[in-house]
TrEMBL record:
It comes from Senna tora. This is Putative plastidic glucose transporter 3. The keyword Transport applies. Its main location: membrane. Keywords: Cell membrane, Membrane, Sugar transport, Transmembrane, Transmembrane helix, Transport. The keyword Membrane applies.
Amino acid sequence: MRGRQRVSSREYMTAYDKDESSVRLLNGKPSWRKSLRHVLAASLCSFLFGYHLGVVNETLESISLDLGFSGNTMAEGLVVSICLGGAFVGSLFSGWIADGVGRKRAFQLCALPMITGAAMSATTKSLWGMLLGRLFVGTGMGLGPPVAALYVTEVSPPTVRGTFGSLTQIATCLGLMGALLVGLPAKEIVGWWRICFWISVIPAATLAFAMELCAESPHWLFKRGRRTEAEAEFEKLLGVIHVKPAITELSKSERGDEPDTVKLQELLYGRHSKVMFIGSTLFALQQLSGINAVFYFSSTIFKSFGVPSDLANTLVGICNLSGSVIAMILMDKLGRKVLLLWSFLGMAVSLGLQVIAASSFASGSAAMYLSAGGILMFVLTFSLGAGPVPSLLLSEILPGRIRAKAMAICMAVHWVMNFFVGLLFLRLLEQIGAQLLYTIFASFCMLAVIFVKKNVVETKGKSLQEIEIAHLPQELT
């Protein structure tokens, strides 16, 4: 525009860094202790997500006998997968809900269908009641993870944002393992599966209550023009001496009381399309690696080698949890990009072991050890980066104005890919064989390595405002 001088992003960032470094030098880094309890409360949402994914694993046989559809593989598949349909719907609307009512209320709205659906599943006398209950639960499962990623990103100090983001992945692992352990007596005790569903009501009700005591996202409050409330929440999260610099930094990229005019066309074809492409592609490649096929069908693969399903599930759970804990430790030391690169590369190598196990070069015990070891290594390397990083990274690189709605669309891509991989895995395994199928999965992992290398920018230790300015230099005038 005439009368306005364009400033390069390099000059802007230099001035920005000088200003921020002086503030940080004066006040020091905010303590992570104040925000930890808020992040832990939000992680209950991820625990529920994992629990409901795993709750039918050990209980499906008992459910099918009690409700009269034993032997009907289509009905059994629907009980397992219908929640994915609900999750797609929930994730699609999660951004509009989170922006409309706030992050805290969105968590409570996530807990409501989980409580209702679990109660319906626990008390049903028919297959249709079970399916309806699982559908309700699925909407909560879809709504929760995007909101959790948003909330954790927006309330965490930059120096520990990666570590706190990993807590949600650990909570998911604990939910999965908890569901498997709780479900073990289902084959021995008649009706125990109903108890398994009732148990999930406890963390869901705790989530709804805990959110009343937690801070609202200051970013959301500021964006709605509620600056005073945003300052009060920053004080809860960072401490009083960090409120002013936090607000000052937030105002560099956010504009209080801005109209909510984000349209779908702007996200898909406008100036944010590149960052949307990065986020959606990461989620797509995450699922096309075949990870959820391994989670869904690892028991079947292990059972073919004579390994009991409970032992198989335990081993997979331990690898998943161990990798997530390691990722939490390394996230803010090595960075997001490094973990993603090595994670996808490790997954490709693991799938290579599966290919060898399925070939004529390996037979008998050698094939068993290669296949079982490949599965466990695959889960471990996935949980080191490809599991926890995409949702955290996306919530960091998306500008605050579009963050919630863009997350919703990218997570919808995740659920669509998840559904089709789970639906087609066994059929493809039967039609083209394990060797070719695992080669395809490994190819997607290598494609992910190339994509991350070329497109992902490191975000560790940077404030959300620094990241936003780095990704949108064309707006600086």
